[in-house]
# Entry
Amino acid sequence: MALLPSLLTALLVFSYGPGASLGCDLPPNHVLLSRENLVLLSRMSRISPSLCLEDRKDFRFPQATVDGSQVQEAQAISVLHELLQQTFNLLLTEHSAAAWNTTLLDQLCGALHRQLEALDTCLVREMGEEGSALAMQGPTLALKTYFQGIRLYLKEKKYSDCAWEVVRVEIMRAFSSTRVLHKRLRNKERDLRSP
# Structure
């Protein structure tokens, strides 16, 4: 639960951070969807993480993908989109449906899908035709590799309940790591509004 405040802050990046600073208008309910994601992820815990200490793993989150000094502004939306998309894809597997309460899982996937739709619009607007080329570079490619490691871990652990709990906590950490990117984008937004 200690991650709850930082994760909420991180998820708010999807509501007004990159959208406002990069000229992309996200829907007003984006903040509510971010909070909903946070609450649902927290509620999805079925066992105590302390029971899974032997299953812990350092997935080596690519911190540079969300480090404000490393990510170009045009890539920021792409990075945030990729983080949500990879999480969404991971949660859509049949193995995740067996691991978690399907009602909560469906609600989380629905909320992620709505956020992805809003970010899709921003990606097209902000990156245009170069978007797909940029998406395959640097930060987004690193996120794809990171999530591939998570998928391999789950497979090695035979999709056990502890493995899914470790992954749930890792996803929360990944979301909370976006705070640096969020702060940079908000500062840039203020700079653009200053005379």
